[in-house]
From TrEMBL:
Residues 6-320 form the FAD/NAD(P)-binding domain. It comes from Rhizobium lentis. This is Glutathione reductase. Its cofactor is FAD. The active site is at H438 (proton acceptor).
Length: 461
């Protein structure tokens, strides 16, 4: 029996922290976990899950319109924002309960308090001031929206946190940023009837995605009525009687009911007592870890967004499971960051895994690019002017599929399965030998027989 109060103390009750605590406790370790806000963390409480519920809500308008082409007459429809928020809150509360139930079922001590490090083995529970000790400590405190403090008037803006609890829907919104959150919320608010403008500093939204999909989504969003201002930034936000006035660098003055800043997320490390414990952070405040998520202090690990590696829930959970293998199963395991499937829940949706054409062009001498752009079957009767894009990036030398990119309905669902095929190292021949499933959109992935073009030394030929 060790002299510490606990074998493991986890600070932060989000995806990574809860997983590590629950599994360690189920292995018979004495575990405590502390959370200052709500169990479930960003993903469950004010991220992925409520966002996806909002995405569903925002798409009904298009479904009602599409129904007509299939013979339906849809009566007058209206949308109640407060009802959506209340329904979402009830579901989130249910999920939070399940997270806690999982922890208590495994016999972990659930602490509802902020916790700060006192030294490498001691944690202070801020609610009571009590200190407890642990042999091993995990920091899994996640991240928070970048407040963009340099922007005059940033205090009048909201982040994604507040977007989940707006008292009422504004008539108009300006969203700053061109990443996941900006693009997803632009689609959500537009779908709910809000006049939506996106303002992004770069040449094209979603800088880390395949160029084709970025352009395709941009065009589709503009066609729906979302205004996108690229090569521009907010210079100042001021509040008047009629709402907010925004000065931009290149597009003059804009008016908006709400301004949402979606300019990335910062690691949550302030005031955690990291200096007291001697834990090193980088210039952005992210905890520095080795390949096994261990900090510079032998018994302290850090998982998830607080380490600013890949800010995705499944990655934090995977890091937690690798920690369990490493620390408790005598099986040192490094998180594997290769081929992480990802989706942007816009309308149309992006689903992607592996390298973009641009990245692959830098890595391989020659690529075969298979590309299909087509009108999905449903759009023939709905009359909606939408196009799906599907793209496979193939290393010409090995025939391995190194990237798969989809824009269109259910792209995220397809990307998950494509993730399995790429992870298994499937070649284009494996795709060719797979029977098509007809009639689906996904059958295009196995029926693109000839390359649309080749890329040699990074140049299309
Ligand atoms: P992202 O990193 O995706 O995007 C941040 C955006 O803000 C980029 O367009 C960036 O521009 C821009 N930006 C950053 N700083 C400034 C600045 N000072 N002035 C102007 N523009 C700026 O972050 P998000 O906030 O959208 O999302 C945070 C993370 O959450 C993501 O990285 C993602 O991992 C995760 N997430 C995942 C989702 C999913 O899986 N579907 C959904 C939502 C979030 P530039 O591109 O030029 O750098």
């Amino acid at each position: 029996m060790s002299s510490y109060d606990y074998d493991l103390f986890v600070i932060g009750g989000g995806s990574g922290g809860v997983r590590a605590a629950r599994v360690a406790a189920s292995l018979g370790k004495r575990v405590a976990i502390a959370e200052e806000y709500r169990y479930g963390g960003t993903c469950v409480i004010r991220g992925c899950v409520p966002k996806k519920l909002f995405v569903y809500a925002s798409q009904f308008h298009e479904h009602f319109e599409d129904a007509e082409g299939f013979g339906w007459t849809v009566g007058e429809s209206s949308f109640d924002w407060k009802k959506l928020v209340a329904a979402k809150d009830a579901e989130i509360a249910r999920l939070e309960g399940l997270y806690k139930k999982g922890l208590s079922g495994a016999n972990a001590d659930i602490l509802e308090t902020r916790a700060e490090l006192v030294d490498a083995h001691t944690v202070r529970l801020m609610k009571t001031g009590q200190t407890v000790t642990a042999k091993t400590i995990i920091i899994a405190t996640g991240g928070r929206p970048n407040p963009h403090a340099a922007l005059p008037g940033h205090e009048f803006c909201i982040s994604s946190n507040e977007a989940f609890h707006l008292e009422e829907l504004p008539k108009s919104i300006v969203i700053a940023g061109g990443g996941y959150i900006a693009v997803e919320f632009a689609n959500i608010f537009h779908g709910l009837g809000v006049e939506t403008t996106l303002i992004y500093r770069g040449a094209e939204i979603l800088s880390r995605f395949d160029e084709d999909l970025r352009r395709g989504l941009h065009e589709a969003m503009v066609a729906k009525g979302i205004r996108i201002l690229c090569h521009d930034t907010l210079q100042k936000v001021s509040k008047g009687e009629d709402g907010l006035t925004l000065e931009t660098m290149n597009n003059g003055t804009l008016q908006a009911g709400v301004v949402l800043l979606a300019l990335g997320r910062d690691p949550n490390t302030e005031g955690l007592g990291l200096e007291a414990a001697g834990v090193a952070v980088d210039e952005r405040g992210a905890i520095i870890v080795d390949d096994y998520s261990r900090t510079n202090i032998e018994n302290i690990y850090a998982l998830g967004d607080v380490t600013n590696r890949v800010q995705l829930t499944p990655v934090a959970i995977h890091e937690a499971m690798c920690f369990i293998e490493t620390e408790y199963k005598n099986n040192p395991t490094r998180p594997d960051y290769d081929l992480i499937p990802t989706a942007v829940f816009s309308l149309p949706e992006i689903g992607t895994v592996g390298l973009s054409e641009e990245e692959a062009g830098k890595r391989y001498d020659e690529l075969e690019v298979y590309r299909a752009q087509f009108r999905p079957l449903k759009a023939t009767l709905s009359g909606r002017a939408e196009r799906m894009i599907m793209k496979l990036i193939v290393d010409a030398a090995s025939r391995k599929v190194v990237g798969a990119h989809i824009l269109g309905h259910d792209a995220g669902e397809m990307a998950q399965l494509l993730g399995v095929t790429l992870k298994a190292g499937c070649t284009k021949d494996d795709f060719d030998q797979t029977m098509a499933l007809h009639p689906t959109a996904a059958e295009e992935l196995v029926t693109m027989y000839a390359p649309s073009y080749r890329v040699r030394d990074g140049q299309r030929v």
